[in-house]
Amino acid sequence: MSIEALLHTEIESEFDKLSTMEPGSEKYRTTVDGLAKLMDKAIEIEKVDIDCKDKAAARESEQTLKVQQMREERRDRIVKNIIGAAGVVLPLVVTIWGTKVSLKFEETGTITTQSGRNFVQRLFHKK
Fold first, then answer.
1. DSSP annotation of 125
2. Would you call 7 exposed, middle or buried from its count of C-beta atoms within 10 A (0-12, 13-18, 19+)?
3. Is the pLDDT of residue 47 over 80?
4. Can you tell me the distance from the alpha carbon of 42 to that of 3, in angstroms, rounded to the nearest whole number?
5. Rounded to the nearest 5 degrees, what angle is found at the Cα of 37, between the Cα atoms of 35 and 41?
6. How many CB atoms lie within 10 A of CB 102?
7. Measured between alpha carbons, how far is 11 from 25 in angstroms, rounded to an integer?
8. Confidence of residue 106 (pLDDT cuts 50, 70, 90)
């Protein structure tokens, strides 16, 4: 049996004893004082149990929140990496495509259009 169960059993037995005693006697007062102390201890045990359960629930909710934040941070990193890669790849692809189209348009070997010159300059830029 747990201590809490034993304490409640003792409190019940003390109440049973009180019902057979004569109110106002010294033994009655002593039993009431002992019963009050037992009740105080039972209340303290319940407070400790409730506090323990509240702390466990708080830890669990905090852990759930941290896991959710980690997931959101991971998504943010993935999106930022995709945006960064697209910022590098897309201009390069557009420049290469534009150069290819310009060269196809200007099959004679000289690039006569301004857009064709811009694409070639972007592709072979001098630093």
1. -
2. middle
3. yes
4. 10
5. 115
6. 19
7. 20
8. low
Among 91, 89, 115, residue whose Cα is nearest residue 103: 115
Q: For residue 119, count CB atoms less than 10 angstroms from its CB and return exposed for 0-12, middle for 13-18, buried for 19 or more.
A: buried
Alpha helices in 1-127, H assignment, sequence order: 3-20, 26-105, 114-123
Q: State the burial class of residue 45 (Cβ atoms within 10 Å of its Cβ: 0-12, 13-18, 19+).
A: middle
Q: Which of 42-56, 75-89, 110-124 has the lowest mean pLDDT?
A: 110-124
Q: Which residue has the tokens 């998504």?
A: 75
Residue 71 pLDDT more than 90?
Answer: yes
